[in-house]
Specification:
198 residues; 7-stranded mixed β-sheet; 7 strands; 29% helix
């Protein structure tokens, strides 16, 4: 396996050529536990293009040959929407000093081989290079322990995030809404923020 990491710039031929693969990757991975997200290619393409065009954003893709097998994205928190910014107002983490990691997703066959850490470190370095940030954050969905679609084969990532230096911040929570794969309508889900220093 030979993996190349690419930083995709909006408007470039590389970015436009990768959008379809990145959209399909997000749809596939986020259908898994714990997100159970019933995504559409149209919405995903729009989301990726909007995210990548935000000031200070980064889209890092891992490619095996011509195939995109993983992606990690991020942007300054203040470039995001208010549902993400609001929990940080009045907290110990001023939003103007926070870089937000939107997601890091990989195909199953490429997990457990160190790519996750490589993604996070490249995203972290991007935030450091931008300057002005003291913290980086991401959020993860909180599901009930007795959820009927829980997959026992997929372990929680909390120990991994803790090992990489993130900490769960009590009370730093927001809500996102999407349609689960077993539901007819969107429902709101709590999203817990994790933070580490830059």
């Amino acid at each position: 396996m030979s993996i190349d990491f690419l930083t995709l710039t909006p408007g470039s031929a590389e970015f436009e050529g990768a959008v379809e693969q990145v959209a399909a990757l997000r749809i596939r991975v986020f259908r898994e536990w714990p997100y159970l997200y019933d995504g559409t290619e149209t919405w995903e393409r729009r989301y990726i293009s909007k995210l990548a065009a935000a000031e200070g954003a980064v889209v890092i893709a891992a490619r095996d040959g011509e195939k995109i097998v993983g992606v990690s994205t991020g942007m300054p928190l203040l470039s995001e929407h208010d549902e993400l910014i609001a929990p940080f107002r009045g907290s110990d983490f001023p939003p103007e000093q926070v870089f937000y990691g939107a997601e890091t997703v990989m195909l199953p066959d490429y997990r457990g081989q160190g790519l996750y850490r490589s993604f996070l470190e490249r995203r972290r370095q991007h935030a450091i290079d931008l300057g002005g940030f003291r913290w980086e954050t991401f959020c993860g969905v909180v599901r009930p322990a007795n959820h009927p679609l829980r997959d026992p084969a997929i372990p929680p990532l909390d120990p991994v995030w803790t090992h990489l230096g993130y900490r769960k911040v009590a009370g730093l929570i927001t809500d996102f809404s999407w349609r689960d794969i077993d539901q007819a309508e969107e429902t709101a889900k709590p999203m817990q923020f994790w933070v580490r220093g830059l």
